[in-house]
Design a protein that fits this description.
The chain is mainly beta. 9% of the residues lie in helices and 62% in strands. The protein contains one helix and eleven strands.
Length: 203
């Protein structure tokens, strides 16, 4: 019986020690790439909101986590996002806004589970417009705001390869808080999500 119990206790103790390994000051960087899907929302249409059809694209960038303890970290970084949406006229013609942004997420990140491999993050993301096109033609700068602020939130799971490296799978949502439309009085906001994979490197 002892031969069974002792290794089991040792394994549990190791798992507990591993869960406590992220002390204050630990830094992890995560380069990542993913699939994104965004639309443009018009929440000012009475009590209802109307959304365009979604467009999809590639999201990529990198984030860094600074740990305050083994449960909480602050996450920020640089992420390149393709946002916008698709419109259809009566003839079925597709009019697609392609809005490329550089986003700087600033999120509180809660690490949970017995080994802290799960994380739940939430916060805000200032985004700066890099390029704006409609059907591959430049949209005048007077028509689109160069800055937007969004609410960001997500959940992820880290597959630990070794103590210094892991693979992160995560979902990130984005809800625009500011109007991106300068052309007229219509209130338009970006809304969407991305599914990503990244390599987690502990410094």
């Amino acid at each position: 019986m002892k031969k069974i119990l002792l290794p089991l206790v040792a394994l549990i103790s190791f798992g507990f020690a591993n869960a406590q390994s992220k002390g204050k000051g630990t830094i992890e960087i995560t380069p990542k790439i993913g699939f994104s899907s965004f639309s443009e929302s018009n929440p000012s249409n009475g009590i209802y909101s109307s959304n365009t059809d979604t467009n999809s694209g590639v999201e990529f960038g990198g984030t860094a986590d600074y740990y305050f303890n083994n449960r909480w970290s602050l996450r920020s970084g640089l992420v390149f996002d393709k946002m916008g949406g698709k419109y259809y006229d009566w003839d079925g013609f597709v009019y697609e806004d392609k809005l490329n942004y550089l986003s700087i997420p600033i999120n509180a990140n809660w690490h949970f589970g017995s080994t802290r491999k799960w994380n739940l993050n939430f916060g805000f993301s200032p985004s700066f417009l890099l390029d704006a096109k409609a059907n591959n033609k430049e949209i005048p700068k007077s028509h689109v705001e160069s800055f937007q602020l969004g609410l960001t939130y997500g959940i992820g799971y880290k597959i630990e390869i070794n103590k210094k490296f892991g693979v992160l799978l995560d979902y990130q949502g984005f809800n625009g808080l500011t109007n991106i439309n300068k052309a007229n009085s219509t209130n338009i906001k970006n809304v969407g999500y991305s599914i990503n994979v990244g390599g987690v490197i502990e410094l």
